[in-house]
Amino acid sequence: MINRKLAQIRKLGCRPAEHRPGQPSMSALRGFMARQAPARLDRSHIDPAPLLLGNDMLGDCTSAGIGNHIRATSALGGFQTDITTAQAVAFYARSTGYVPGNPGTDRGGVEVDVLTAALRDGYAVTNQALFPLWGSADPGDLNGVRNIMAGLSAAYLGVQLAEADMWQDETGTLALVWDTDTPAGHGDPTPGSAGGHCLLGWDYTGTADTDIVTLLTWGAKQRATWRWLRSRVMEAHALAWRQLQPATGLGPSGQDWDALITANDAYLRGVA
Fold first, then answer.
1. Which end of the chain has the least Cβ crowding within 10 Å, N or C?
2. pLDDT, average across residues 135-162
3. So what's the pLDDT on residue 164?
4. Element containing residue 236 per DSSP (H, E)
5. What phi, psi does 227 have (nearest 5°)?
6. Which domain of life is it from (predicted)?
7. What does the DSSP assignment read for 121-159?
8. The dihedral of CA 56, 60, 61, 65: what is its sign?
9. What is the dihedral of CA 62, 63, 64, 69, to 10 degrees?
């Protein structure tokens, strides 16, 4: 009998971070981004229910990340949104030029272009299409990243994975915690030696270098240290689903919401 975990393949597919003229920026949300983020974000009692969404077969992590962001936001509201692999792959095709059935076109996605496609065309899920607002943040501003996690359900991140991060044991399980201090036998620890990947930041135990941040990727939760994330992250973005957003005191103020809407409208007019 084949071990299902061992048979699982984890695909990468986040291309190098790029910037587009006029793209929405979280710097417009001055109050939201500048405030002190919670010292701890405990969501151990909430199941964000991440799905693979084809990321074991294709480099569609940028699409899977959006789908799982929808599901994480839904979970915080006490419900869940059904998303199928076919829907995630269809969006991957629309947003990156992937042609289903043609492996040569499976080249991954540029996060800002994938987010632009979602803003412009929506992300189709079962029985509806959802349209996000989004904005880019300074990936080195971990306080800002934590504010995005706490106030907008999860941070949409682009990371440069090392070969050491892809190490798995005989059952196909990844290391319990991703850290910058890796055993020599786990492979090259150089960020980017494995490739780029899109994943979500979900919660965290504290803000010190060795405190744990929970990531959502490949249909599961993966723990990592903040120092690991600092060494790997190349871009950070916020997604906001007005249709799904739970009422919380950690979300943006009305003024900040208006600033994000204005930034997205201006960008959309520019790319139309």
1. N
2. 98
3. 97
4. strand 233-240
5. -65, -30
6. Bacteria
7. H-EEETTEEE--EEEEE-TT-HHHHHHHHHHSS-EEEEE
8. negative
9. 90
Tokens found for residue 222: 């993966």
Q: How far apart are CA 38 and CA 58, in angstroms?
A: 36
In sequence order, what are the residues at sequence separation of 6 or more whose Cβ sits closer than 8 angstroms to the Cβ of residue 122? Answer: 129, 130, 131
Contact 27, 34 (CB under 8 A): no
Q: How many angstroms separate the Cα of 102 from the Cα of each of 58, 107, 173, 195?
A: 11, 11, 29, 21
Q: Name the 3-class secondary structure at 5.
A: helix
Strands 233-240 and 155-161: antiparallel
Residue 242: the pLDDT is 85
Residue 177, SS3 per DSSP: strand
Q: According to the model, what pLDDT value does residue 111 have?
A: 98
3-class DSSP state of 84? coil
Question: Among residues 155, 231, 222, which one has the least CA distance to residue 192?
Answer: 231
What is the arithmetic mean of pLDDT over 217-241?
Answer: 98
Token match 């920026």: residue?
Answer: 25
Give mean pLDDT, residues 210-236: 98
Judge contact between 111 and 17, C-beta under 8 A.
yes
The answer for residues whose C-beta is within 8 angstroms of residue 35's C-beta and 6 or more apart is 147
In angstroms, the CA 130 to CA 70 distance is: 9
